[in-house]
Design goal:
- The protein folds into 4 domains: about 130 residues, Immunoglobulin-like (Sandwich); about 100 residues, Immunoglobulins (Immunoglobulin-like, Sandwich), CATH 2.60.40; about 110 residues, Phosphorylase Kinase, domain 1, CATH 3.30.200.20; about 180 residues, Orthogonal Bundle (Transferase(Phosphotransferase), domain 1).
- The chain has 13 helices and 31 strands.
- By secondary structure, it is α+β, with helices and mostly antiparallel strands.
- Helix 7 runs antiparallel to helix 10, helix 7 packs antiparallel against helix 13 and helix 10 runs antiparallel to helix 12.
- Helix content is about 30%, strand content about 30%.
- The relative contact order is 0.05.
- The longest helix is centred in the middle third of the chain and has 56 residues.
- Keywords: Glycoprotein, Kinase, Magnesium, Membrane, Metal-binding, Receptor, Signal, Transferase, Transmembrane, Transmembrane helix.
- One of its GO terms (cellular component) is receptor complex.
- GO terms for molecular function: ATP binding; metal ion binding; transmembrane receptor protein tyrosine kinase activity.
Length: about 625
């Protein structure tokens, strides 16, 4: 107790006599060498900074102690280099000087680890005394209407404005002074029961009067560095503000007028389009009702005429004009000679046909069977009229004419005289007389003639045709070699396609248990009656496998009941002997059970073109 009382009297006496020296505030506090120094070394430290206290005794001496005194209470914190107080365990001993006994005090804040520190020798003699004082540099900003760091504010003369001076990291006591144009307007003292760092806000209201005013917020205190911020007010007269408000109102009114006129025009356009659509629908219903009230004529063709050309005989009242595209001559049905009826696996029936005067080459007449419904006749008539406007494509069978004024309707296509691609590859066409009856066999030379890249060119032509059909809103579900004709120059020509609007009806009517094209359809088409462009990717991959297998039928001897097990295999089709690795990889990218994972036709066309151009090696 006597030692504590002597230490307390020493501190009081030091303060009363003003024997306090200040350091340079660079983070180090040291005393002159020599024990029992009666001077208190003041250490000014910035907020949350650190300081090294250097006791003027050797760090290798014995019975060395560090003490702290806060609010009249003294505590030992270190003895001979070891911590004696858990609260100050983060302090560092003998880390900032090579020979002196030192103490490093980190993260100094008011009311925390500032205050008086003593270095004692032999547990009794005071070798050095240190006073740590924290000096803060607060952050000061002016806020206006929720916006921070305001520098310039536009307002109207006579308006009452409210500003906020927001101060961070201040040490009490702190004084905030508001000044307007250099004249102090408001002074406010902020204090705290504790000596800790805190934040606060000071409000200031004033009425703007002159054309330009400057408002300042000045923050000062004994333990902080003075800071000040300012905000400039640009004052506008009421008449000027009113004019600007009127101009803004005029602009808003003009904008509303433009928007209103635009909406009226848009609604008028919608009404016109709606009325036009309703009128067209009414006309279509009237025409359909009239057609339903008239019995369909029967096509008068002799059943025994297989190899001879016949004249299409029709009652005089049904005779009508026939249009051939690009021909200025008008023909009648009586001018057309129907020849041999060709067998076909599709829903169309086909005849070889020619003109009686022989002015045109032979062509194919395509129509529906007599059992077709009236909706079927309506669809083929609309499809024929649509085909008048599509451009020609080198890999699509040409549409040469149509007859849609009377039922039965006819679509006339070019007469391709070199058979199907399946025939060209050396296999039978399974009784497709449309191809085989006009085919001059290539014999065994076909296999020798066809090169790997030529087969890729065949595939590329068919793929280009499918992409073209997509661009004109047409589909060709289940493409296969039997649906590709070869002309005399060995150019592939795709036929038997339909409009996209009828694809769903076409697929729903397929009997897959008896369908000869079952292996070429995608799984989602067979089992879910679904169809998309990804379904074409699957069908085209099976078609490529057929081409590189010399026309063999894929998934041979597979029926509707067991073909799903073949689809589940990975990959579903093995690599043909003539198929290069690059082509087979493209096939596998198409033969995915998930449609969204299949390669797109456009990307497939790019890869196939690269292979044909020799940008990838041919390897089998």
């Amino acid at each position: 107790m006597a030692k504590d009382f002597r230490l307390f009297l020493f501190c009081v006496a030091s303060f009363l006599h003003g024997a306090v020296r200040q350091t340079n505030g660079q983070g180090n506090c040291s005393m002159p060498d020599g024990p029992s120094n009666t001077t208190i070394e003041r250490c000014d430290v910035s907020l949350r900074g650190s300081v090294c206290l250097q006791c003027p005794v050797s760090r290798f001496s014995t019975s060395l102690q560090w003490w702290i005194m806060r609010e009249g209470q003294k505590e030992m914190i270190f003895r001979d280099g070891y911590s004696t107080n858990e609260r100050y365990k983060i302090f560092l001993i003998n880390k900032c000087h090579s020979s002196h006994y030192t103490l490093t005090v980190p993260n100094i804040i008011p009311g925390g680890n500032d205050g008086m520190y003593f270095c004692l020798v032999h547990g009794d003699d005071t070798a050095a005394s240190f006073l740590i004082k924290v000096t803060a540099t607060p952050i000061v900003s002016i806020r206006h209407n929720g916006y921070e760091h305001v520098k310039e504010i536009h307002t109207v003369e006579g308006t009452v404005e409210t500003l906020q001076c927001f101060v961070q990291d201040a040490i009490p006591p702190t004084t905030v002074v508001w000044s307007l144009n250099g004249i102090d307007q408001k002074r406010e003292l902020f204090n705290s029961s504790s000596n800790a760092v805190y934040n606060f806000t000071s409000d200031f209201k004033f009425t703007s009067s002159t054309s330009h005013e400057e408002v300042r917020c000045i923050c000062s205190g004994p333990d902080i560095l003075m800071r000040e911020v300012s905000a400039n007010f640009v004052i506008e007269t009421k008449s000027k503000a009113k004019d600007e408000h009127n101009s803004e109102s005029d602009g808003t009114t003009s904008l509303l007028a433009v928007i209103t006129i635009t909406l009226v025009c848009f609604l008028a356009l919608i009404i016109i389009l709606t009325v036009t659509f309703i009128v067209r629908r009414c006309k279509q219903r009237k025409r359909r009702f009239k057609a339903q009230s008239t019995p369909l004529p029967v096509l008068p063709i002799s059943e025994n005429l297989i190899h001879e050309d016949v004249l299409y005989e029709s009652p005089d009242e049904l005779q009508d004009v026939v249009y051939f595209y690009g021909d200025n001559v008008v023909y009648h049905r009586s001018d057309i000679l129907l020849g041999k009826r060709l067998q076909s696996s599709g829903r169309m029936i086909r005849w070889t046909a020619s003109l009686q005067n022989g002015n045109r080459p032979s062509f194919i007449a395509n129509t529906l069977p007599d059992s077709s419904s009236r909706d079927d006749w309506c669809e083929i008539r609309l499809f024929a009229e649509y085909l008048r406007n599509i451009p020609k494509h080198v890999n699509i069978v040409d549409i040469v004419g149509c007859d849609t004024n009377k039922t039965p309707h006819f679509i006339y296509t070019e007469y391709v005289t070199n058979g199907t691609l399946k025939d060209f590859l050396g296999q039978s066409s399974d009784g497709n007389e449309y191809s085989t009856s006009i085919y001059s066999p290539h014999g065994d030379s076909a296999t020798a003639y066809v090169k790997i890249k030529q087969l890729a060119s065949f595939c590329y032509g068919v793929l280009d045709a499918m992409i073209f059909l997509e661009s004109i809103d047409c589909d060709h579900p289940g493409v296969c070699a039997k649906k590709v004709l070869m002309n005399t120059r060995d150019v592939c020509k795709l036929y038997d396609f339909n409009a996209c609007s009828t694809t769903k009806k076409f697929i729903s009517g397929i009997d897959f248990e008896r369908c000869s094209r079952l292996p070429w359809f995608a799984p989602e088409t067979i089992f879910k009656r679904g169809y998309s462009r990804s379904s074409d990717s699957w069908s085209f991959a099976v078609f490529m496998w057929e081409v590189y297998s010399n026309g063999e039928t894929p998934f041979i001897q597979r029926t509707l009941g067991n073909i799903k097990s073949a689809f589940d295999e990975n990959p579903p089709l093995s690599q043909p002997k003539l198929c290069p690795n690059e082509i087979y990889l493209l096939m596998k990218r198409c033969l995915c059970l998930q449609p969204e994972k299949r390669i797109k036709l456009a990307k497939l066309k790019e890869e196939l073109k690269r292979f044909i151009d020799g940008e990838s090696d041919v390897s089998i």
